[in-house]
Write a structure and sequence with these properties.
The protein is of the alpha/beta class and 281 residues long. It has twelve helices and eleven strands. Helix 3 links the parallel strand 4 and strand 5. The longest helix has 15 residues.
Length: 281
């Protein structure tokens, strides 16, 4: 299969672009698919699917939340001759109480996992927890750069996982059939509270960053003052609930099982990100 391009959907995202980079570093042919780029791929435009899949034998599927598009995509991929599928899923999908899910995100992810398992080809599922990179290029990045992270997360903790570890697991599964049939739940090596996280970032950057825990309604009110629609503000507050309740505090063994080594610590993530200028002043 190394003679055929490996398709990476979501190639500009946190995990996708790292998967692309690792595959290219290994000298493997990659088709980096996104809505804007040489390989145009749009989940909502099925006319873009066939060209992306042409000649492909392995694919990394980064799904579009709140949809059930993975199933028809997998069916088309199999018709194109794809033999190996790695799916980006998520922790907590087996827990009906994990998060308030008014948008049907968890239902869509469950259907995607079922579609991959029922595909008849080799499959691997990656279930990452909260990305450490949310502090540098995601939900929390702007607040961290401002020096103050205000969230309704209380003193809850999460075993934040470095996206580099996620990408390493995905690449291993894409190029090695020994990972077929595995579901890798990936996390960092220990749970970190929000206060500990920003203290670690402060130490790595030499700049003071503080965490301010807020009541949920106070947080929603702040978002409303910033111009957020009420529904969006409350939905984002719901996203934070698993952090507040510590539902992602447990540690998973996916990195160790897939790669034979422990996952990177949050401190390692912070130091490497700071060294690359990940939190500009």
């Amino acid at each position: 299969m190394s003679e055929h391009p490996i398709l990476v959907t979501g190639a500009t995202g946190k995990s996708g672009r790292r998967v692309v980079a690792r595959l290219r570093d290994a000298g493997l042919p990659v088709r980096a698919a996104s809505r804007n780029g040489p390989c145009v791929f749009d989940w909502r435009d099925r006319r873009t699917w066939d060209a992306a899949l042409e000649g492909v034998r392995a694919v990394y599927v980064v799904q579009l939340d709140g949809t059930k598009l993975v199933r028809p995509f997998v069916e088309r991929a199999v018709r194109h001759g794809v033999r190996r599928i790695v799916l980006a899923s998520g922790r907590g999908i087996d827990d009906p109480h994990y998060v308030k899910d008014g948008g049907g995100v968890l239902e869509g992810i469950r259907d995607s996992e079922a579609a991959v398992r029922e595909s008849g080809v080799e499959w691997t599922i990656s279930r990452p927890g909260w990305f450490a990179q949310n502090f540098s290029e995601g939900f929390f990045a702007e607040a961290v750069r401002s020096g103050e992270l205000r969230l309704p997360a209380g003193d809850g903790a999460a075993s934040f996982v470095d996206a580099e570890d996620i990408a390493a697991v995905v690449v291993a599964a894409l190029i090695d059939g020994r990972h077929a049939g595995e579901t890798y739940e990936v996390s960092g090596p220990r749970a970190v509270t929000m206060a500990e996280a920003v203290a670690t970032i402060s130490e790595a950057t030499g700049r003071a960053v503080r965490y301010v825990p807020l009541p949920v309604e106070a947080y929603v009110a702040e978002l409303l003052r910033q111009g957020w629609p009420d529904a969006d503000a409350r939905a984002f507050a719901d996203v934070i609930e698993p952090l507040r309740e510590g539902r992602d505090a447990y540690v998973s063994d996916g990195v160790q099982r897939a790669l034979g080594r422990p996952p990177r610590t949050f401190a390692e993530f912070a130091k490497s990100t700071a060294a690359r200028g990940g939190w500009p002043a």
